[in-house]
Amino acid sequence: METSEHSHLKFKICVSGAAETGHCAPDALEKAKELGREIARHNAVLVNGATTGFPFWSAIGAKEEGGFCIGLSPASSEKEHIKSYKLPVEYLDMIVYTGFGYAGRNLLLTRSSDAVIIGCGRMGTLNEFTIAFEDDKPIGVLIGAGGTADQIAEIVERAYRGPGKIVYDSNPASLVGKVLELAHKEKIINGS
């Protein structure tokens, strides 16, 4: 594998998923924690939407493993983040207050990441997936988690846009490994 002058930079892996997880698989939150742990074990940075649910649990896992977590908030300040959006600040080392609402936050969240992992989700997760797909980002889909994650393969097939740079796996550790492999290839191909 080639190395670049910027090889000291850590990969930023976005974990996308539902803030409200009532529709998720029974083990989805434990799998979210395992995703976070694996991201930390690979010395990558976990990036999420500074929200509750699946992304929150991934941050818990990353922090349990000594990882670093960045949250991108839809709010314009910590006060708005907590009072208006009712979002958490725990388990995040840093929060970027975008002030762009959910749609704008989703764009920045996926664009600022080297790869995106999709867990149990809803419409917002699907939005983050389509942005990452359009941007040709490496994407991992945690199948069996419930919600939109279990519909991605069919959506991609019916969209007639090709397979994208997507890997699918039901095992969080294996999925993180596959996503990082794709991200490494992208870094070498794009020369960054």
Describe the protein's architecture and organization.
It is a single chain. The chain is α/β, with parallel strands linked by helices and 192 residues long. It has one domain (12-190): 3-Layer(aba) Sandwich (Rossmann fold). It has helices spanning 28-41, 53-64, 78-84, 101-111, 123-134, 152-159, 172-190, and strands spanning 12-16, 45-48, 69-73, 94-97, 115-118, 139-142, 166-169. The chain has a seven-stranded parallel beta sheet with strand order 4-3-2-1-5-6-7, sandwiched between helices. The two termini are 13 Å apart. The mean pLDDT is 94.
What key phrases describe this protein's structure?
192 residues; alpha/beta; Rossmann fold; seven-stranded parallel sheet; 7 helices; 43% helix
Topology:
Layout: E1 12-16, H1 28-41, E2 45-48, H2 53-64, E3 69-73, H3 78-84, E4 94-97, H4 101-111, E5 115-118, H5 123-134, E6 139-142, H6 152-159, E7 166-169, H7 172-190
Parallel strand pairs: 1-2, 1-5, 2-3, 3-4, 5-6, 6-7
Outline of the structure:
By secondary structure, the chain is α/β, with parallel strands linked by helices. It has helices spanning 28-41, 53-64, 78-84, 101-111, 123-134, 152-159, 172-190, and strands spanning 12-16, 45-48, 69-73, 94-97, 115-118, 139-142, 166-169. β2, α2 and β3 form a beta-alpha-beta unit.
